[in-house]
Design a protein that fits this description.
Layout (H helix, E strand, L loop, with lengths): L6 H11 L6 H20 L5 H4 L15 H14 L4 E6 L6 E2 L9 E9 L10 E9 L9 H4 L6 E9 L3 E6 L4 E7 L4 E6 L10 E3 L10 H12 L3 E2 L5 H11 L2 E4 L12 H14 L3 E3 L19 E4 L1 H15 L3
Helix pairs in contact: 1-2, 2-4, 6-9
The protein binds 2,5-anhydro-1,6-di-O-phosphono-D-mannitol and magnesium ion (MG).
2,5-anhydro-1,6-di-O-phosphono-D-mannitol binds next to β3.
């Protein structure tokens, strides 16, 4: 479609193009976009938090100021609860499943999110993001069940992220390619800026926190040595959405491995790894935990952590070879 097309128009056109596609997403994506605008507006004022007050303090208007993690979580909950499309929500910021309140109709999907990924970077004006994932629920009773949420990434019907950077972008997939929209702050609309994104099959960037190198497995250590001896160069923001987004557009590999101290790594399967894996695969990239496809891992618990290797397919395959041959010889 023509660049500059609004998100709403694009979604309607996609629905017409794929007749089986559920119209439910129009409503949901529109509300996700609204939440993104509200959060973007708030994140852009982050430098004023000291001036306006921290959590527990009152701002100049005498209102309680929330931490941005809390704030973003609440924005999504409030914006999405009433849509009629969801039965429940799970979030990195909440211990348990949130059931859509009785006052609203309950729908056939569940929503999972990391409402503000990389939030430790916010004070120093580094890009942060929100990651989301949607599954069709398994159960049919009035309440969402844990089984509705503990589904392999392969079952996702939609995944995406918002990145609050030099501009705010919404990038999403419903299984028909990956599309990116940039917020035009002048008119308050997300406009199509990146249609059918495809990640380069191989690239020069590797992204990993090298300060943990002494804790890495031999396979990861040797892959990074190999990468450095070749033509690769390091780029690591320390904000997953920012690192992933750069690598998606320019090509590259992002690794957050398990290590001796934390065998499962740091990142969460359901809120971070699975949704980004869906996007990566739809952009012709690849994602795994080093051994198995990320999309096929069946979650055992809501906040489960998982090692993540994601990005340009040839680079990911190369890293997997090191990790499987050296760390798991059989
Ligand atoms: P968060 O969800 O608590 O923000 O943690 C996830 C973040 C990612 O954005 C980032 O890639 C990673 O933590 C950085 O971790 P580290 O400082 O260990 O490299
Ligand atoms: Mg996170």
């Amino acid at each position: 479609m023509e660049l500059g097309t609004t998100l709403t128009r694009f979604i309607i056109a996609q629905q017409r193009k794929y007749p089986g596609a559920s119209g439910d997403f129009s409503g949901l994506l529109a509300e996700i976009a609204t939440a993104g605008k509200v959060i973007s507006h708030e994140v852009n004022k982050a430098g004023l938090i000291d001036i306006l007050g921290y959590k527990g303090k009152k701002n100049i208007h005498g209102e309680e100021v929330q931490k941005l993690d809390d704030f973003t979580n609440k924005v999504f909950m409030k914006t999405l609860s009433h849509t009629g499309h969801l039965a429940g929500i799970a979030s990195e910021e909440m211990d348990d499943i949130y059931q859509i309140p009785e006052e609203f109709p309950r729908g056939k999907y569940v929503f999972l999110m990391d409402p503000l990924d990389g939030s430790s970077n916010i004070d120093v004006n580094i890009s942060v993001g929100s990651i989301f994932s949607i599954y069709r629920r398994k159960s049919s009773g009035p309440l969402a069940t844990m089984a509705d949420f503990l589904q392999p990434g392969r079952n996702q019907v939609c995944a995406g992220y918002l990145i609050y950077g030099s501009s705010t972008m919404l990038v999403y997939t419903t299984g028909h390619g990956v599309h990116g929209f940039t917020l035009d702050p002048g008119i308050g609309e997300f406009l199509l800026s990146h249609e059918a994104i495809q990640i380069p099959s191989q690239a020069t960037i590797y992204s990993i926190n090298e300060s943990y190198a002494s804790e890495w497995s031999d396979g990861v250590q040797q892959y990074i040595e190999y990468a450095k001896k070749g033509d690769k160069t390091a780029r690591y923001v320390g904000s997953l959405v920012a690192d992933f987004h750069r690598n998606l557009l320019k090509g590259g590999i992002y690794i957050y491995p398990g290590d001796k101290k934390n065998p499962k790594g740091k990142l969460r399967l359901l809120y971070e790894a699975a949704p980004l894996a869906f996007i990566a695969e739809q952009a012709k990239g690849r994602a795994s935990d080093g051994l198995s496809s990320m999309m096929d891992i069946v979650p055992e618990s809501l906040h489960q952590r998982v090692p993540l290797v994601i990005g340009s397919p040839e680079d990911v395959i190369q890293a997997e070879k090191y990790m499987s041959k050296i760390d798991n010889p059989s």
